[in-house]
Each structure stands twice: as C-alpha cells, then as structure tokens.
Write a structure and sequence with these properties.
Length: 227
C-alpha cells in the first residue's frame, strides 16, 4: 500500500473512530482527522502518536525468542500460545501472570535476560512499510510521538536498526512510566511533552491494551491490522 493510500485509509478510520468510539455528536470528515461537529469544522489533526511493537515494526517473533530463552535461563518454559496472550502488555505485568508465585527479584532477572538476549533477535523484526511511509510523509508538518511499552534499551535498538529515531519529536518508553498500558500514563505524558490537545491528535495502535490506553487519554485511535 502506498503512503497516500495510507493517508486516505487514515481519514476513513478516523471517521469510523469518531462515530464509534467517541462520545457526543458529529462525524469525522475530510482529510486526515478533520472533524465536523454540529455543522462546524473543528480542525485537523496536529499530532500523531504511534505504538511501536506490532504497529510500526513486527517484533513478535524477536520478542518471543528472546523471552523464551530468558525464561529458560531461569528454569521456566514459555510456549508460543502462552506468549500470544501477553501481546501489548508490559513484562512487569505479564511475567507474574504466566508464572504465578514468582517473586519480584526473579521477574527482574527474566526481564534483564530478555533485554540482553534481544539484540541477537533483531534480524527477525520487519517494518510496516506503508505506515512508516505515511509517518515520513506527515512528520514534517505534524508533531509526532512514539508511546511504547518496550523498555528504552530494546526500543532504541529497534529504532536504530530501522532508522526511525529521527521521525519522532517525543518518545516515551515503558520504563519511563509508573503504569503501563492499558493505563493512559504514557499517552498523557507524550501529549504533555508535545503540547498537544488530544482532540487534535490521533493514535495508531495494534493491540486492545494499547487502544484502551489511547482512548483513556482522550485520543481517537486508528487500529493497525497485523502486517
């Protein structure tokens, strides 16, 4: 899909989000994010906020392999099916769910091992070419942010490998917030740093957890399908 087609699809998705997931009258109309409410144009989207894993870059296999090996180092098994239930969640939350009774120190050990092992799995990541083309097209005229549950060390590795770092004005990592998605803290922090009104912004997310976080921050959300 070409970048201009992504822009058209974004406009359509914003209209759907406005009709289905926001309170109050009105529909979305026009270009990317133009909203018509009570017969008046309220304005266009000024800020774009993106999730990373599964939205801009497919990291599922890389994350699974790194977590599987990290679990194994601590004497635990992690299956593909079990890992699939964790997508979009912070490891601080899902490791205790997968390993009931595990202590905080052991959780930290697994998290540290995963971070160490992840660099060796980056070759398994693939970019969402259409969405990144759209981001490159819009970045010069829109404020942009990345809001991810990834820890900063691993997240920066992904951005560097794929040359994405310069595309963002603001980046909020999972280890820079107290509460991870679905809590809106990361999105609220990004909006504050951008100086952006959520009513004039748009979030891109692939997971239910991420969508919940963005909606709780007052953002309309475009759901990104698996690519």
């Amino acid at each position: 899909m070409r970048a201009e087609h992504v822009a058209d699809a974004t406009g359509a998705a914003v209209r759907r989000a406005g009709a289905g997931e926001r309170n109050g009258p009105g529909n979305w109309s026009g270009g990317v994010g133009e909203r018509v409410t009570m017969g008046r144009t309220a304005g266009t989207v000024q800020a774009l906020l993106f999730d990373l894993d599964g939205t801009l870059v497919d990291t599922r296999e890389a994350n699974y392999q790194a977590y599987r090996d990290a679990f194994a180092e601590s004497g635990h098994e992690l299956t593909v099916d079990a890992f699939a239930t964790t997508w979009g969640r912070d490891s601080r939350d899902f490791i205790p769910d997968l390993l009931p009774g595990i202590g905080p120190d052991d959780v930290d050990t697994i998290r540290a091992a995963k971070s160490r092992l992840y660099a060796g799995q980056l070759h398994r990541t693939t970019v969402n070419e259409a969405l990144i083309a759209f981001l490159r097209l819009m970045a010069p005229s829109h404020r942009t942010a990345l809001v991810s549950t990834a820890k900063s060390g691993n997240g920066r590795q992904i951005l560097d490998v794929h040359g994405l770092t310069p595309l963002f004005d603001v980046i909020v990592w999972g280890d820079e917030v107290e509460k991870s998605k679905p809590d809106p803290e990361g999105y609220l922090r990004a909006l504050d740093l951008l100086g952006a009104d959520p009513a004039a912004a748009l979030a891109f997310e692939d997971s239910a957890t991420g969508r919940q976080a963005a909606l709780a921050a007052g953002l309309p959300v475009l759901e990104v399908p698996h690519f």
